Amino acid sequence: MADHTIIRFEQVTKQYDNDPPVLNDVSFEIERGKFYTLLGPSGCGKTTILRLIAGFIEPSKGKIFINGKIVNGVPANKRQVNTVFQDYALFPHLNVYENVAFGLRIKKLKNNEIDRKVKEALRFVNLEGYEKREIKEMSGGQRQRVAIARAIVNEPEVILLDEPLSALDLKLRTEMQYELRELQRRLGITFIFVTHDQEEALAMSDEIFVLNNGNIEQSGTPTDIYDEPINRFVADFIGESNIVPGVMLQDFSVQFAGKTFECVDGGFDSNEAVEIVIRPEDLEITKPENGKLRVHVDSQLFRGVHYEISCNDQDGNEWLVHSTRKAIVGEEIGLTFDPEAIHVMRHGETEEEFDKRLEAYEEGSYEK
C-alpha cells in the first residue's frame, strides 16, 4: 500500500440482522491531507462509512486499514480520528475552553500543555478571546468552530464531519463552507465530510464519493463527477441534467432527438444504445433555424442569476435550459451546444468497467 494512503476499505459489508446490507462489498482508498466528501441521498450508507472509520460500529465482512494496519476490533478511543457530529455534541455546562480541553484532561496532560494546545486550537478556528464564553451564548457557526477545535486539539490524522452544516441558515452555511475548506488546507490533515447537498460537495471537496443503496456509484474530483457522470443516477443526482436516449453510431458520432451529432466520446460498440447527458447551462438559445435542436418553450422561472426554461422537442424529449436570455412561453426556439457538452453514458456500466474501457480506448487496445 502506498505511503500516501491513510485509510483503506477492503470489500467491507455492513448488515444488521436479516435486513438488506447498509454497505455492500465496498472498497476504496483515502489519501493523506485531502478533503473528501461522502455524498448521497438519505440511507445510502455514507454515515455508516464514517461510523466504521471512527470505530463506533464494526463491519460484518471485510477489512478496514488505517495507516496500513487493520483496525477491525480496535476501539474508537484508540484510533487517530476525531468526529464532529451533526449536533456538535458540546457540553452545555462547560465553557468554550473546557469543551476544547475535555479530551486532553481525559488523557491527563499537564495543565500548561493543555493550555498551550487549547489556545492554539482556538486560534486555528478564529475563536481567540472566547475561552470563557458559555456555549449557550455562541451562535451556530461559533459552536461548530468550537466542535472543530475540540477535534483538532487531539492532533488526529483524520477528522470526520457528519453533516455539521445542516442546521445552519443558508448564508452562514456558505460562509462555513469557505472556513472549513481553508481550515483543512491550513491544518494539512485529512477531512472526511458527509453531506446530501450536491452544491456543498462540489464546492468543498478534493474528491467525492457518490453513494447509492450501499454502493459507491462513482468517485473522482468535483469536475470529473459533474462533467463525466458514469450513469443516470450520478448525472441526475449531481446538479441538473438533460438525459435522453441515443445511439452511438461510431466513435465521435452519436444520434439522439432524431439527428446525428459530433461528440468527443469513443470506445462504444457501433449502433450501441446509450444515454446522452447535456447540462442545462451548456445549452444556448438561438433562432429556430440556427439551432441544432428546435424546441417549444413550456415554462420559465426566474432564478436570480438565470432563467430556468423547460422545453420539449418534436420527439417528446424534455429539455431544461439555464440561460441569462429570457424566452417566451409557447414560442419555438433553437438550442445549440458544443460537441464537448455531449456526454455519452453506457447503460448500467459500473465505475470499474467505465475506467477499464476508457483506459483501453486511450491506449488503443480497446476491442469492441
Describe this structure in words.
This protein has 368 residues and is an alpha+beta fold. It has helices at 46-54, 96-106, 111-124, 140-152, 170-187, 198-204, 222-227, 232-237, 351-363; strands at 5-14, 23-31, 35-39, 61-66, 69-70, 81-84, 158-162, 190-195, 207-212, 215-220, 242-250, 253-256, 259-262, 272-278, 284-286, 293-302, 307-313, 318-323, 332-336, 343-346. Strands 6-7-8-3-9-10 form a 6-stranded mixed β-sheet, with helices on both faces. The chain has a 5-stranded antiparallel β-sheet with strand order 13-12-11-14-20. A 5-stranded antiparallel β-sheet has the order 15-19-16-17-18, with no helix packed on it. A hairpin with a 4-residue loop joins β16 (293-302) and β17. α2 crosses α3 (111-124), α2 (96-106) runs parallel beside α4 (140-152) and α3 (111-124) crosses α4 (140-152). The chain is globular and about 75 Å long. The mean pLDDT is 91.
- Choose one word for the global shape: globular
Order of helices and strands: EEEHEEEHHHEHEHEEHHEEEEEEEEEEH
The number of helical segments is 9
- How helix-rich are the residues, as a percent range? 25-40%
Question: Percent of residues in beta strands?
Answer: 25-35%
Distance between the termini: 33 Å
In the sheet with the most strands, the strands line up as 6-7-8-3-9-10
- Gyration radius, in Å: 24 Å
Largest sheet: 6 strands, mixed
Counting helices, strands and paired strands, the structural category is alpha+beta
**Average pLDDT figure:** 91
Total strand segments: 20
Note poorly predicted spans. none
